[in-house]
From TrEMBL:
PANTHER family in the cross-refs: DIHYDRO-HEME D1 DEHYDROGENASE (PTHR47197:SF3), PROTEIN NIRF (PTHR47197)
Identification of the protein by name: YncE family protein
Keyword Signal annotated: yes
Signal sequence annotation: 1-26
UniProt keywords, alphabetically: Signal
Keyword Signal: yes
Coiled coil region boundaries: none
Native source species: Frateuria flava
């Protein structure tokens, strides 16, 4: 058994692995180019207006895209590389989350402060459920059969029972709420409280906040991805263009990296261990995560307003909806660059 002093020394040594790796890229050093190749610019339907979140259903090879400016959920076939449907009437759609186990897709509609349930087979709207003010990101806790919806301006998470498509609760979080994510190891839900530089931890068994984690160095912590096996959380801070690395064991920020301006959506490809951070500026920052080691791979402009990304772990292709490419929206599809 380790003594208390030895345990502390081991913990500090483990944190240093991440700190040393992060420090090499957090001081304004030049970044290598993105190791990505554009394989296609697939045309998207609708007008050259803003896109928001994207979510992949790998069982059907369908990518669901929130076309916010057109109030439409666009369905893209990743095998045939073309749009197969547009689902209208999702007012100012922000978030979209495909849950293959339920054969459903959920979309947050900020124009009407509601969440819309969509049948993944027929692509028909099944139900509409009220939320708080400005619903945005969503997370699904499968054991509890609950969907958690970030109400950015409402300062809360709405809780939806997916078994009957019914709102069952509201959790006050005390500030503007960024993205919400589920952690399968703890079984808890984590939500960015971006005006308090906090990560709130919610227990789905009680729908109570059980902890608040201070995020040192955070300004506008909005984007969130949880690497459950490594016990790390990655937090994109839109107001200071920073990616924070949070150790979920110690509840401490253990690393910090520069990103493009206005980092927003994060996506992870578990095969190579690549973490994508897409920014409002159109810059994408790419990181390699190996266990608990994190290092920057490259950063560069992917396209105008390329702030949304989704990754297919089977093909390692990444998808970036661009609202205006030569006057029309396109889906930029990239693949890892093959070394020559």
């Amino acid at each position: 058994m380790l003594t208390g002093t030895l345990r502390r020394r081991h913990a500090v040594a483990g944190l240093a692995l991440i700190l040393l790796t992060a420090a090499s890229t957090a001081c304004g050093q030049a970044q290598p180019p993105l190791p990505l190749t554009t394989v296609a610019d697939a045309p998207l339907a609708g007008r050259a207006t803003r896109w928001d979140y994207a979510s992949l259903d790998p069982t059907r090879h369908r990518l669901f895209l929130a076309h916010l400016g057109d109030s439409v959920v666009t369905v893209f076939d990743t095998h045939r590389q073309r749009v197969v449907a547009d689902i209208p009437g999702i007012s100012s759609v922000h978030g979209v989350l495909a849950i293959p186990d339920l054969d459903r897709v959920f979309a947050s509609a900020t124009g009407r402060d509601e969440v819309v349930a969509i049948d993944a087979r027929s692509l028909k709207v099944l139900a509409r459920m009220p939320t708080g003010d400005y619903p945005d990101g969503m997370a699904y806790a499968p054991e509890a059969h609950k969907l958690y919806v970030s109400n950015e301006h409402g300062g809360s998470d709405t809780v939806i029972d997916v078994r009957n498509n019914r709102r069952v609760g509201t959790i006050a979080l005390g500030g503007e709420v960024g993205n919400t994510q589920y952690d399968p190891v703890s079984g808890h839900v984590f939500a960015n409280v971006q005006t308090r530089a906090e990560l709130a931890e919610i227990d789905p068994a009680t729908d109570q906040v059980v902890a608040r984690i201070r995020l040192a160095g955070a300004r506008g912590n909005h984007g969130l991805y949880i690497d459950a096996p490594a016990r790390l959380a990655f937090i994109a801070c839109e107001d200071n263009a920073t990616l924070l690395v949070l150790d979920l064991r110690s509840r401490r920020v253990v690393g910090s990296f520069e990103t493009g301006d206005g980092p927003d959506v994060l996506a992870f490809d578990p095969g190579p261990g690549w973490l994508y951070v897409a920014s409002e500026s159109g810059e994408v920052a790419l990181f390699e995560v190996k266990g608990r080691r994190v290092r920057a791979l490259g950063r560069g402009t992917l396209g105008p307003n390329a702030h949304v990304v989704a990754v297919d772990p089977a093909t390692h292709r990444a998808y970036f909806p661009l609202k205006d490419w030569n006057g029309k929206p396109v889906l930029r599809i990239t693949a890892p660059t093959v070394p020559k």
